């Protein structure tokens, strides 16, 4: 059967209608796993990142997709999107009108996969260790508004927040708030290697070669109690070096589904010339790509340089020539498919203009051409990233105002270097932790942010972000988000480039494909099945 399907879950809420370093963790492959899913996400341990799968450290979509299968959270985003629902908890709610106190009651007889009971103290332990470790990877920032968390008896947990935060239930649904056991995770130290243990839908067994995770065998956790319905007994997640190798495995029948990340050419080919027994499914997505700047680095410290880049970049050319129908230009950190979006960059800079860029640099007394290196990761977002950065280089150099070079670096080295501030300008992608405008702003502008950036704007941090979080009716936060987007367009600590669509290719015998990847690119392997499963 040859077919292309479009998955359109009922997305509620704010969406517009829309390593083991010592080599001790070896383990078998999936063995008898019925379903095999391919990914181009690469998982490696290194001296800079020895504990890639510890919830207190992990802050990457690919790693979170492993954690979501194994580590349970108090709440979770439901199947079709919308407001969080209880998972490890039986009920959760704010206990005050100001959104400063949040109470959860754990499910009865909840246990970890090894049979040990999960108690309220395990929840407080897990949250407190994240805040104590405070990894520079940025995930702890999601929980930084917690003042105290207390266990009341065996099942009750109460979070007291420093300031009101209507988005807090969403944050509790992310893996950084995953519940772990003190038997396996130290209070002040990260757990090195690739093994993950929790109370989630699956247990896992990693296969590691030369410090890299090559596959994970997920087996249904018989002790799991939560909101998820598991539709299979086991899934293997297999990592591939690139999308071509993953595609060959699908055609050969070695895997049942290929997910992150299909290349644009693969999508065009599968759409134009479908393969027998293979279907291509489009899934609504909220991914964005952007350039970010180390605002203390000499080449870009002057705001005028960053503004000139913003005035020159032709997003339409990049989207059309590199990504085709899989990307659309983006003029704000907040995607156009989320309420509160504003085309702030287009409003300020208009169409790409050399004259405008030259005027900005001339008025600021900046000598041209400005020498600048753009860094990107070679193995994290797909092969098209290299073409994208070649296009950015050419656009800037054609103006005569810049002398740009590009340099690609493997993700295992790229991310630590970026966090250290080694790069003046670099490219990254963002898959939201939860579908709220806050999660496209705070991770870039707030303290303890994902980028570890030196950029700080007092109005954003001290007034606008807190004001937006006070609004339980999220539409009422729109004025704050409008001003935040305008600040980003003026200061340009980050330059949005495009937002993407998501595609999954699978054997047509597989069911649940349309639910297996949600708008935030969360992999939900429990949705997959065979036939009428």
TrEMBL record:
SUPFAM superfamilies: Periplasmic binding protein-like II
Domain Solute-binding protein family positions: 84-449
Domain of life: Bacteria
Signal peptide: 1-20
Compartments it resides in: Cell envelope
PROSITE patterns in alphabetical order: PROKAR_LIPOPROTEIN (PS51257)
Ranges in coiled-coil conformation: none
Keyword set, alphabetical order: Signal, Transport
Tagged with keyword Transport: yes
Family (UniProt): Belongs to the bacterial solute-binding protein 5 family.
Name the UniProt record assigns to this protein: ABC transporter substrate-binding protein
The organism of origin for this protein: Streptomyces tamarix
Lineage, opening ranks: Bacteria, Bacillati, Actinomycetota, Actinomycetes, Kitasatosporales
């Amino acid at each position: 059967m040859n077919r292309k399907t479009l998955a359109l879950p009922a997305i509620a809420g704010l969406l517009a209608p829309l390593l083991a370093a010592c080599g001790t963790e070896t383990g078998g492959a999936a063995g008898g796993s019925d379903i095999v899913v391919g990914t181009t996400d690469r998982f490696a341990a290194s001296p800079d990142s020895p504990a890639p799968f510890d919830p207190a450290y992990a802050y990457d979509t690919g790693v979170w997709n492993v954690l979501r299968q194994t580590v349970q959270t108090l709440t979770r985003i439901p199947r079709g999107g919308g407001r969080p629902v209880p998972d490890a908890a039986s009920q959760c709610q704010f206990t005050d009108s100001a959104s400063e106190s949040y109470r959860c009651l754990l499910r009865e007889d909840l246990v970890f996969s090894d049979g040990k009971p999960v108690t309220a103290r395990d929840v407080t332990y897990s949250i407190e260790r994240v805040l104590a470790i405070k990894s520079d990877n940025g995930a702890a920032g999601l929980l930084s508004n917690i003042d105290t968390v207390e266990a009341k008896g065996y099942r009750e947990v109460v979070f007291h927040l420093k300031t009101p935060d209507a988005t807090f239930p969403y944050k509790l649904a992310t893996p950084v708030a995953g519940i772990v056991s003190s038997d396996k995770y130290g209070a002040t130290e990260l757990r090195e290697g690739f093994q993950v243990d929790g109370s989630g839908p699956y247990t896992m067994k990693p296969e590691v070669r030369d410090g890299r995770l090559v596959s994970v065998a997920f087996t249904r956790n018989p002790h799991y109690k939560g909101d998820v319905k598991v539709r299979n007994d086991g899934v293997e997640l297999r990592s591939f070096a690139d999308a071509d190798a993953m595609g060959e495995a699908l055609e050969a029948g070695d895997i049942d589904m290929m997910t992150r990340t299909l290349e644009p050419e693969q999508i065009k080919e599968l759409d134009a010339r479908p393969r027998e027994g293979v279907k291509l499914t489009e899934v609504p997505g909220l991914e964005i790509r952007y350039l970010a700047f180390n605002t203390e680095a000499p080449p870009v410290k002057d705001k005028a340089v960053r503004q000139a880049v913003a005035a020159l970049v032709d997003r339409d050319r990049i989207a059309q020539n590199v990504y085709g129908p899989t990307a659309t230009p983006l003029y704000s950190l907040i995607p156009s498919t989320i309420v509160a979006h504003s085309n702030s960059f287009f409003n300020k800079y208009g169409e790409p203009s050399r004259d405008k860029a030259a005027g900005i640099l001339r008025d600021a007394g900046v000598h041209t051409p400005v020498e600048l290196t753009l860094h990107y990761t070679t193995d994290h977002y797909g092969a098209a990233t290299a073409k994208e950065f070649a296009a950015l280089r050419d656009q800037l150099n054609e103006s005569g105002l810049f002398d740009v070079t590009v340099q690609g670096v493997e993700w295992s080295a790229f991310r630590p270097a970026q966090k250290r501030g080694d790069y003046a300008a670099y490219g990254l992608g963002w898959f939201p932790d939860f579908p709220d405008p806050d999660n496209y702003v705070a991770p870039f502008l707030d303290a303890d942010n994902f980028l570890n950036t030196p950029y700080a704007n007092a109005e954003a941090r001290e007034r606008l972000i807190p004001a937006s979080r006070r609004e339980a009716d999220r539409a009422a936060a729109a004025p704050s988000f409008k001003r935040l987007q305008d600040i980003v367009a003026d200061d340009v600590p980050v330059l949005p480039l495009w937002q993407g669509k998501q595609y999954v290719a699978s054997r047509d015998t597989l069911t649940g494909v349309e639910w297996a990847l949600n708008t935030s690119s969360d992999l939900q392997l429990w949705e997959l099945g065979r036939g009428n499963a």
